[in-house]
UniProtKB/TrEMBL annotation:
It comes from the Bacteria. This is PDZ domain-containing protein. Pfam families: PDZ_2, Peptidase_M61, Peptidase_M61_N. InterPro entries: PDZ (IPR001478), PDZ_sf (IPR036034), Peptidase_M4/M1_CTD_sf (IPR027268), Peptidase_M61 (IPR024191), Peptidase_M61_catalytic (IPR007963), Peptidase_M61_N (IPR040756). Residues 485-544 form the PDZ domain.
Length: 603
């Protein structure tokens, strides 16, 4: 229990119909030269400047019931006029909350959700101090069934402390902690399970028919496996999956002892579902991903994030390790914990490989560069993104896979990427010392050397080249000792135009035009709407079928609208690229191969 903190906040879902949270921040001993307040420009885990201050609608300051002048310093900072020593200063402001994502805040008559980075102004000079947050209930009888779900701590012994899952007083040891526990309020579904002795909870907001028992059983297996991978005790004493269920949505954001998730209703399991669906595997993969971040990025961090600077971009070339390795382990944890079958895992892995092969940007940008430029490229993708960007998630996951397979093969199964993760946990996660920008190379080399004398330098070098280079990884070669066959084939028959259509089944609108493809060579552009191929009408639904009947090298006349002008193009069709990867168990799998595979996949 902290002493009465000198900083305290209140937040109230004051006007759900207007999507307005009323927030106040009281400072018991404000800076005598004028207290400065600042709202973050970004939220950790989502590497883009979002300028949350743009959602502050009105703001005023007062002291002893009298208004205090307030001056705007820059886009997200304010300074209140000096007040008499020993007098408390209170800032009151309205926050517009209508962003249905895991990154900001959302409020209507059905529920409220917020990340602290969207609603709590930091008090300059006091961000290291403990603070109270009073989460106030909504008004009106329709809203009296609301509960609160968050991993913010409750001040034990304080008469105003919130009851379990209730409105009232919560606290955080510092500002960094305050904004790392998202809060959900509403009439949600709530379930509990245990993993390695640690209580876990899942909260589902929105209409759903989820089979909670099945979900909890599967999540318990995945969480237990991850805790055991890094070693007990778990780094948290409780964990919360906050889930917003919608018709069509997907997203997740990691926090120190919880995660905020957005999922499609159809991806949740339902009573009587029987066989696992692809959508459910996607949801389990998302939960597994965010949970793995509890170690990898929330505690094992790049030095560039220790501490975070929430006012501007925090550059690191390491997101391939923090997002890529996490992406590798998210699905791997599902198969290793027995929640999905080996064949399903190989299909997921093949999909990641296909995703990388389908972006020409992989030949131009390294994952180190992609990490560094996440702020302006990966998070701000436009129609040219596939031609210019490599995903540090997908290619980072393949680098993790390649490392894991090489470590296992070189050491006859004695060493693996698991050892790398455990070493990172011991040296960085448990000590709080950030990982240096070149810190991974030597650490991987150290694990490799322990597995096979002389392998350390080679693997360390290999990793540096893979991370800083743009060549395709020889994955087929790495998979061979595990008795897994790699095959890349064309996704479609016939001929290719080298385009991706915009979502929807109506007009054939080009979302992307791939570098060097038939469409780009004849002058078609993203945004163009194809209307006819050789004089025959074409739609989004018919394009693939029309191309399937053609041959590479054939010429076709294409009519398309650009803006509102009809244009004609002559395209020479190309062969469809062999960019769909299929992984399968080889025909002849020797005993050593089988042993390596069992170590890797658990079966
Ligand atoms: Zn992630």
């Amino acid at each position: 229990m902290p002493h009465q903190p000198r900083v305290s906040y209140t937040i109230s879902p004051a006007r759900p119909e207007a999507h307005i949270f009323d927030v106040s921040c009281t400072v018991a001993d404000p800076d005598p030269s004028g207290q400065v307040f600042r709202l973050p420009a970004w939220i950790p885990g989502s590497y883009m400047i979002r300028e949350f201050a743009r959602n502050i609608v009105t703001l005023k300051a007062e002291c002893d019931g009298r208004p205090v002048g307030i001056e705007k310093l820059d886009k997200h900072s304010w300074r209140a006029a000096p007040v008499a020593r020993g007098r408390a200063l209170t800032l009151s402001y309205e926050v517009y909350a209508w962003d249905l994502s895991v990154r900001a805040a959302h409020l209507d008559a059905t529920h409220g959700f917020f990340n602290g980075t969207s609603v709590f102004l930091a008090v300059e000079g006091k961000t290291g101090e403990p603070c109270y947050v009073d989460i106030l209930p909504p008004a009106g009888p329709a809203l009296q069934t609301w509960k609160v779900a968050t991993t913010l701590k409750r001040p034990a012994g304080d008469p105003l402390a919130a009851p379990a899952m209730g409105f009232g007083l919560y606290y955080a040891d510092n500002y960094d902690e305050l904004v790392d526990h998202p809060v959900e309020m509403g009439s949600f579904t709530h379930a509990r399970f245990e993993a390695a002795g640690v209580p876990h909870e899942i909260v589902l907001t929105g209409r759903h028919d989820c089979d909670l028992e099945r979900l909890c059983t599967d999540l318990a297996s995945v969480c237990t496996w991850q805790i055991e991978l890094f070693g007990t005790p778990a780094p948290v004493d409780r964990y919360l999956f906050l889930t917003m269920v919608v018709g069509d949505g997907y997203g997740g954001l990691e926090h120190r002892s919880s995660t905020a998730l957005l999922t499609s209703r159809g991806d949740l399991p339902y009573a009587g579902m029987g066989e696992q669906t692809e959508g459910y595997r996607t949801f389990l993969g998302l939960c597994s991903h965010e949970y793995f971040h509890t170690w990898n990025v929330k505690r094992i961090k790049p030095a560039a994030f220790t501490p975070y600077d929430l006012a501007s971009e925090n550059y690191t070339r390491l997101l391939w390790a923090f997002e890529g390795f996490t992406s590798y382990y998210d699905d791997l944890a599902l198969v290793r914990s027995g929640v999905i079958a080996v064949e399903d895992y190989l299909a997921l892995l093949g999909k990641t490989m296909s995703n990388v092969l389908r972006s020409g940007g992989r030949l131009k940008q390294s994952v180190a560069e992609s990490s560094f430029d996440a702020w302006i490229k990966y998070y701000r993708q436009d129609e040219n993104a596939p031609n210019a960007i490599v995903s540090y998630y997908a290619k980072g996951a393949l680098i993790a896979l390649a490392l894991d397979l090489q470590l296992r093969a070189a050491s006859a199964g004695r060493k693996s990427l698991d050892d790398v993760m455990r070493l990172l946990w011991q040296r960085h996660g448990q000590t709080g010392e950030g990982v240096a920008e070149d810190g991974l190379f030597a650490l991987v080399g150290e694990v490799a050397e322990a597995g096979l004398k002389g392998a350390g330098r080679r693997l360390s070098r290999w990793l540096k080249d893979a991370v800083e280079g743009t060549e395709d990884l020889p994955l087929d070669e790495f998979l061979r000792p595990f008795g897994i066959e790699y095959r890349a084939e064309a996704a479609a028959k016939g001929a290719s135009l080298g385009v991706k259509l915009a979502a929807g089944n109506g007009e054939a609108k080009l979302a992307n035009v791939f570098d060097g493809g038939a469409a780009q060579r004849c002058g078609l552009s993203a945004g163009d709407v194809l209307v006819a191929l050789d004089g025959l009408k074409v739609t989004a639904a018919s394009l693939d079928g029309q191309l399937a009947r053609r041959k590479p090298g054939e010429q076709v006349t294409i009519h398309a609208f650009r803006r509102d002008e009809l244009m004609q193009f002559t395209a020479e069709l190309a062969a469809p690229p062999a960019d769909t990867v299929k992984l399968a168990s080889g025909k002849r799998v020797s005993a050593p191969m089988r042993a390596l595979r069992k170590g890797w996949l658990g079966a």
